[in-house]
């Protein structure tokens, strides 16, 4: 799995919550505030996969 993550957002993704997967993104957010939480979650997932 790639360590580079793609996050999308905006109106189209609010009407179809599966749209981000159809576009190849790793996650989506409703707004900038939610995007910060999504980025933190993705960062934790990626850093857990890194070798120690």
From TrEMBL:
SUPFAM superfamilies: Cobalamin (vitamin B12)-binding domain. InterPro entries: Cobalamin-bd_sf. GO terms for molecular function: cobalamin binding; metal ion binding. This is B12-binding domain-containing protein.
């Amino acid at each position: 799995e790639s360590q580079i993550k793609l996050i999308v957002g905006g109106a189209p993704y609010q009407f179809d919550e599966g749209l981000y997967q159809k576009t190849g993104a790793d996650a989506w957010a409703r707004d900038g505030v939610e995007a910060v939480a999504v980025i933190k979650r993705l960062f934790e997932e990626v850093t857990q996969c890194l070798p120690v």
